[in-house]
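User: Fold this one for me? It's ABC-type polar-amino-acid transporter.
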Amino acid sequence: MSTEVTAPAGVVIEDLHKSYGDNEVLKGISVTVNPGEVVCLIGASGSGKSTLLRCVNRLEDPNSGRITVGEFEATDPDVNLDAMRRQIGMVFQQFNLFPHLSVLENCTITPRRVLKQPKADAERGAMHQLELVGLDHLADRRPAQLSGGQQQRVAIARALTMKPSLMLFDEPTSALDPETVGDVLGIMRNLATAGMTMIVVTHEMGFAREVADRVVFMDQGVVVEEGPADEVIGSPSQPRTQDFLRRVLNPLGE
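Assistant: Here's what I get for ABC-type polar-amino-acid transporter.
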C-alpha cells in the first residue's frame, strides 16, 4: 500500500543563531529545503544538528535569524505556533509514546484533541497509518509490549495521523537494535518516495546516500559543506567533511 502525502511544505533557514549562555551552538546557519525534498543533516555529536531541527519546530527559540515553514514565518513573535506545528510531524530518538495508552490510543489522541476529530474518524485514520507501517495487528498492545523498532514505527504513524506537510527526524534509529533499524529506514524511504518534505538528522550514511536529495555536513555550529548526497558522502571537498566520513565509515581506521 502506497503512502499518501499532504502537499509538502518547504523550509527556509536564514542566518540562524542559537546560544545557551556563552555557548554558541548555531553560528549563522542558512539552509533551504524545497517542497518534497529530503535533506539529511550529518556531523559529529554536538555540531548543532538537533538544535537546528528543534528550532524549525520552535521547540527551541533561536537568538536571531529567520525560519519560514510553508506559509508560516516560524520566528515571527506573533506566529500561530499551534497552527504551524499541525503541519509538522517530528520523530525523536526516544519514542515518547504514552505508556498507559494502547498503540491505537497513542495514534488517535492528537487528532481527537487538536483536530477535534470524532473517535471513529480518528481511529480509521490511525489504523490506516498503522497498516502502512505494518503494525495494524498490534493496535491493542501497550508500548512496553513492543520492540524498540516497533515503537519507533508507531511514533512515525502517530506523526502521520496529523497529515503533516513536513517531517523532522532527529536520529530516529540511534536508540534501536541493529536488526530493527532497517524497518524504520524502510518506512522513511517510502515517505521520501511519496514526496514528503523531510529533514533528517542521521548517522546512517547508507540511508543518506540512497534517499537524500541533498546532504548538509555541520561542524561546530556551521555548515561546512552541502550538496547532492553522492558528492558530499562519496567525494567530499572539505577536509573536515573528509575526516568525519573517514571516521564514520571506517571507525577502526583499517
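One thing worth pointing out: Residues 16 and 29 are 5 Å apart (CA to CA).
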